[in-house]
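Instructor's aside before we start: the two examples that follow are unrelated to each other. I chose them only because their records fit on one page, so don't look for a connection. First example below.
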Amino acid sequence: MATYTTDVAVIGAGTAGLAAERHARKEGATTLLIDPVFAGTTCATVGCMPSKLLIAAADAAQAVRQAIDFGVTAEPVLDGRAVLERVRLLRDDFARGVRQSIEELPKGTCLTARARFEAPGVLALDTGDRVEARAVVIATGASPAVPKPYEAVKDHILTNETIFELEDLPESVGVIGAGPLGLELAQAMHRLGVRVEVFDAGDRLAGLPAEASDALHRILTESFPIHLDCKPDPSASDTGAALTWDGGKTRFEKLLIAAGRPPNLSALDLEKAGLELDDHGTPVFDPGTLQCGDAPIFIAGDANHDRPLLHEASDEGTVAGRNAAAWPDVRRTSRKVPLSIAFTRPEAAVIGTIPDGTEYVCGEVDYGNQGRARVEGRAQGLARIYASAEDGRLTGAALCAPSGEHLAHLLAWAIQCEMTASDMLDLPFYHPVIEEGLQMALRDVCRQAGLSRPWQRNDEPLPGSDGGASED
């Protein structure tokens, strides 16, 4: 049995863990990176990239179908095996790039093992070895949860970790969970010719506020059923799994469980680290420093379940790695504006803070009549922009709109720069583009907040540009 001594031990070699190790080492600390498989990041292997590859294939099929709207006659011929083969080919290439970066780490950095706390600052490895560290970063990520009732049909269960390994597209898929992942894959499968239905115990889609959720629900249910406030009961059937709920019963070849990804913490023996845990068993930590209480232990990425997104994991790993290396000289960082995107068609997003009080104003644009969206046959959805009633400063937004991923970035940047609606209207908007639609919502905010219009700015909409007439 060997005992390794290091300044910073990082548990988990995903996005957060890799960033933590790199930045701890940049601070001059000795580091150890501990992971059981070093397979690559969740994003590259079973998350962002393979799901977007499947969506890209679905977009291609839908574009062929929709060609008739433009006077072009065509009909897609779907080869499910070829679709999934391309997904895996490019997915494996992305993952290979991550693994190559791991291989380039300094010799002796990586330990292939599972770690658990034996005491504060002491890790026991399943290889029989031990690690003694001045500081520890927990970056163990998260895994899909399969609710207990679904164990009865486990042979027909898919998760984001297995769906991309299918050799061919199934005939039908029941999707459990109407979050971003469930909706993205449900729509993609539907567009690739799979019969799909979605079930969720909640009353909102993709974490959206009511108005944007309702808009997305109307759009998606034109193609496939979405059952909200619904907890179906699974049971085995001769050719798959059956779901029964109030008023309905149907059978699916496969069930995709997209009902959440809890942090991978249960095997760490956190109680031996002397940490205070919340009701879910997650260490209580400071989001500005990523430090767990007063201990030289930091938690980053999906493991803390605060903002389980790749760009947040990268940022958190950077902060946690630096602070672990410099402990007790811990620095606090301000966080970026929250930004979450569901890559449905149209895309849906939540940006910043959605207020629930009365000290705010809200401007809205209906993309069902926006010029460029109509040109492209994508005229559907809406965007709602929230701002302080006092000065019109932007605070948040929610949308379900064509090119929503790009609109969301523009709004996130504006919010982080503490711009008012009037400040944003002073920026250039080209014609004809999807972004023009935001002007209608921004003008609405200006009117409600009582912001004066600069004399040289034309706030009259160009004909057909943003789908709304000025009310000034």
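Example two begins here.
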Amino acid sequence: MAQTKTDRIYHALREQIKSGELVEGSKLMSLRQAAEQFGASKNTMVAVYDLLVANGLVHSRHGAGFFVAHAVATTAEPANLREARDSVSLLHAQLDRPYTVLAGDGRPPESWLLTSAPSVSLATGEGGYGKPHGLAALREYIAASHMDAGIRVSPNQIVTTFGANHALDLIIRRFCRPGETVLVDDPGYYPLFAKLKLTGVNVIGIPRGPDGPDCDALDSAAQQHSAHLFFTQSLAQNPTGYSIALPVAHSVLKVAEHHNMLIIDDDPFIDIPNVSGTRLASLDLFHRVIQIGTFSKVLTPTFRSGYIIAEPNIADSLAELKMVLTVNSSSHMERLIANIMRTGRYQKQCLRLSKRLIKERNASIEHLNNIGFDLDSDLIEGLYGWLPLPSRRSDIEIAKAASEQGIFLAPGSLFRVEEHTGAPAMRVNWSRVNDSRFYSFLRSLF
């Protein structure tokens, strides 16, 4: 995927320093000179030099400029950290957001989410660190929402977190050890791959199709690698938009039972209505399934709040680990979300988001099929879709070409366990693709 100009200049200077072309103690060009040489703005060069300083490659002298630091070798990154960072280059681009068309972004537009929230005052006893499991009122509302979906949950099975990624971090730290093997959807959630690389585990991809994971491949991989964890998503999977069909859900759970395997079901849109498929927890009742949910994708990304549901002993151990690592999550944020749920505003937001998604997704699929794609609107649900590309060109190269036109695409390669496997494809965000510039670019590929 295309790097930002800041990244490109930073890496160019970094390589000159590491290779010795810029020797220890030598002075870098002034910001003005560097901006002219690299064809960049002065602000861009300030950001580049700040990155070099932050990574210990250069140091500044007040009034004198920037100089190459010594002991560069001691700043070398561990291989697992470098691999993990490279895996989330797409996330960096989403946060940087230098684009005008965000067809590959991972979030709904801000206009689709809450733009305001009621003020909140904490009740007596909620002003301290709180209980490790999280605010009781929010856990009770989460349990009630699952009961409404026919899934029995007790509040003591729920642990609140700083969003879904924090939940993944807790589970990985609790269950993963370097050198072990874990199984994941392929294509699947690319930040998860980065987290697992950082932990030092071996990652094996299980092919994901329109009905869910390939259960024969899951059984074989679990047997061959003695794997005890499988990360998946039951409904409207990221990045394919496919849900797990009932027969496949039964088969997945049979494989898990046979191999004594835990299943981590990470679903950021768990409360969005009008999505078919079968949630694994509806059959398993959290015997082997650990569920992850979040409010960030439905309410607003600024609400860094999510949760884990697991059988009570696992929930207790994760709450204790959360206490060791972060003391607790935010009682203030959790009370605010609990109030939104109490007033019914949360349920209305979920329904509103579902209706908008259905409308935009159907319109987008019709446009894409008219261009020459072949997408089945009956199988694709949720926010995301998997768009096979008509050309044998690299999806990375196509994303670079789109970037030059101000269009942000998400190459399918980044959602693969092994980047260069599978036919070229893109993940699209149905809430963001209805833009004539995006469609014009796609027509140029045919």
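The mean pLDDT is 87.
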